């Protein structure tokens, strides 16, 4: 069985060791087993380590029974001596985030009696699911206390208590555990069963930032970032706010008010534009010469409701079918209105002629047409 050095020293980032075996893993990948490893396999909510074994890139690390499988992009030869090196910057970020999760979940459990029932470390942030609801004020309280834990630089330890000790130990666990149980303790803040490597002190975690929360399965899902990930997130959002503030000629601290003002101006412009468009369409309807036959009217850039109102108004000028359409070749929206013909019974044949989809009532049908402008006009002349 592979010696798991990440349990002896979570800061160990390399080891010179021997390849025990290498087998195909699928999709051109290989599963490599080493005599010793610093690569932590996915577990406890933490992704598996990546890095290199010799010249072979390790893209994932998984556990199979008692063995650690290093998933590589190239094969390695059993018996060879190799240097195995993890991507320690990635490991550090994972440990920062995982340590922050322990602190936050410990505080939530102690303050509000809620349990962590789901934990995932994604590429963008951490999500934690709790079996009860926490409002924004409660989460801000938790976040503040969690960052005090960082400032206090409390010790983080991992131990394997005896069965007798476990009986008297109050610790968190998302599932019933058997066998040798590893307990991670954040002094003064959390005691939890966990198999992942951790930092030695809370000060190394850095800032703990709760980003967002949503109701989820009767409880709440919390989005979290810690340490270097939280710093990267802050920098990205700071640059976005700085850019918006510059464009709006606003101080950064008042950019929300500037955006609100812009939204109000935009809404007023949209309303004025809608009124002017309605007036223009009314003038166009007024200019239509009455006919006993069909009408085919094209107007660019009309929304669905505008197109319908235009077709209904223009139908008063014809005794047959008034067909209004908008858009561009091969992507038109249409609305057809008639007081004299049953459009619902004709809709299948009409759609076949214009490569369309749609339907409606006897007096009105609406839909889309995947034809050119001449084909649409020719269809209206024929029906």
The CATH C-level name of the largest domain is: Alpha Beta
User: Helix and strand succession?
Assistant: EHEEEEEEEHEEHEHEEEEHHEHEEHEEH
Query: Helicity range of the residues?
Result: 25-40%
Strand order of the largest sheet: 2-3-7-6-5-8
DSSP summary, beta strand count = 20
Q: Main β-sheet, in a few words? A: 6 strands, antiparallel, barrel
Number of individual domains? 4
| Estimated share of beta-strand residues | 25-35%
Low-confidence stretches: none
* C-alpha-based Rg, rounded: 33 Å
Shape, per Cα inertia axes: elongated
Question: Which architecture of the largest domain would the CATH scheme give at its second level?
Answer: 2-Layer Sandwich
- According to CATH, the homologous superfamily of the largest domain is Threonyl-trna Synthetase, Chain A, domain 2
| Average pLDDT over all residues | 94
What does it look like?
This protein is α+β, with helices and mostly antiparallel strands. It folds into four domains: 3-86, Beta Barrel (Elongation Factor Tu (Ef-tu), domain 3); 92-235, Threonyl-trna Synthetase, Chain A, domain 2 (Threonyl-tRNA Synthetase, Chain A, domain 2); 249-287; 289-382, Roll (Diaminopimelate Epimerase, Chain A, domain 1), CATH 3.10.310. It is 36% helix and 31% strand. It has helices at residues 5-8, 88-112, 136-152, 163-168, 227-247, 255-287, 304-314, 343-354, 373-382; strands at residues 3-4, 14-26, 29-34, 36-37, 51-53, 56-64, 67-72, 81-86, 116-121, 126-130, 156-159, 183-186, 190-193, 208-216, 219-226, 295-298, 321-328, 331-338, 356-360, 364-369. The strands form five sheets. It has a six-stranded antiparallel β-barrel with strand order 2-3-7-6-5-8. A five-stranded mixed β-sheet has the order 16-17-18-20-19. Strands 9-10-15-14 form a four-stranded antiparallel β-sheet. α2 (88-112) crosses α3 (136-152). The longest helix is centred in the last third of the chain and has 33 residues, at 255-287.
